Known about the structure:
Radius of gyration: 19 Å
Oligomer: single chain
Number of domains: 1
Structural class: mainly alpha
Keywords: Membrane, Transmembrane, Transmembrane helix
Amino acid sequence: KHENIFLNSHRPSSFFFLSICQFCSFLVIIFFSFHTSLYFPSFVDYFNIFILFNLKND
């Protein structure tokens, strides 16, 4: 029974680790987009319009 508990607890931890990796990559992408916004303001305008559109749908 202890082995079962260990296996069940080990699986979510790996899933949690994967989600953290995805979240970090997401933050890097967002940071990169905001950093390049100084050079490409049109991209940020499009990004803001996309956010506003999603908020309107809610």
